[in-house]
Specification:
Number of domains: 1
Helix content: 25-40%
Number of helices: 7
CATH class: Alpha Beta
Distance between the termini: 32 Å
CATH topology: Spore Coat Polysaccharide Biosynthesis Protein SpsA, Chain A
Strand content: 15-25%
Number of strands: 10
Radius of gyration: 17 Å
CATH architecture: Alpha-Beta Complex
Structural class: alpha/beta
């Protein structure tokens, strides 16, 4: 199977027809097949032990990602799964870039690669960072580099998993972890940002491939500024699908 065919894209779009149609439009424009998953409703039995609406929202998102990972592992034979959310814009050359991304992913023996995330500032092209140590510079490629990232880098706007790690993550977080987290909130968090992007050998690509589209409506002022800063520093109309 060729590298070009050896991946499957998924997008989580919960209860928002406008966002769903926009993501369908974007993926069609870049000629990538993407399965749209409509998410987990509040009456799902898996959310029945949540104490409030905020917990239900967080758990719904986490189960939405786990459901996509489950579909990738059990219903495809692809080696790589790419998962995203519906509030992003995507690099117009992503399909062309995928073979090199897969090559680099394999060379670094990664479990997870962040393709889109929250970073409200630019990384200058220097050799190293204390907080974001350089992990790998692909040969003959000055456009992209790969960095390690700290535990407090957030955002699951787009990430890529190996087939092996997808199974590990699903088995670890799908069975009982959510209920345990309700009893032990200090040590366990059933949230995408704290789990799926933090396990295993990890890296982030820079510049990012997917950027949040600046339509966040987060009520927290600090988070809203962080999201807006990411868009302002990384979106470029010549690079990303409008």
């Amino acid at each position: 199977m060729s590298e070009e065919q050896n991946y499957q894209f998924y997008c989580l779009s919960f209860n928002n027809q406008t966002r769903k149609e926009n993501m369908q439009r974007i993926f069609k424009k870049i000629d990538i097949d993407c399965k749209i998953y409509e998410g987990v409703n509040s009456d799902d039995i898996r959310l029945s032990k949540c104490n409030n609406n905020n917990e239900k929202k967080v758990f719904s998102c986490m189960y939405g990602h786990l459901d996509m990972i489950n579909d990738f592992y059990y219903n495809t034979n692809k080696e790589y799964g790419v998962f995203c959310e519906d509030d992003i814009t995507i690099h117009k050359d992503l399909k062309t870039l995928m073979p090199n991304i897969i090559r680099d992913f394999s060379f670094m023996k990664l479990d997870v690669l962040l393709l889109g995330y929250i970073l409200p500032f630019k990384l200058k092209q220097i050799v190293n960072y204390t907080y974001f140590p350089l992990k790998y510079t692909p040969p003959n490629n000055d456009d992209f580099r790969y960095y390690n990232y700290p535990n407090d880098l957030w955002g699951t706007h787009m990430y890529m998993l190996s087939r092996e790690n997808a199974k590990k993550l699903f088995d670890k977080y799908n069975y009982g972890y959510a209920d345990d987290s309700l009893c032990n909130k200090k040590n366990l968090l059933f949230s995408v940002d704290w789990t799926l992007t933090k396990d295993g050998n990890r890296a982030m690509i820079y510049p990012m491939i997917a950027v949040e589209n600046n339509m966040t409506n987060n009520e927290d002022v600090g988070q809203r500024k962080s999201h807006q800063g990411t868009y302002c520093n990384h979106y470029n109309a010549d690079t990303f699908i409008i």
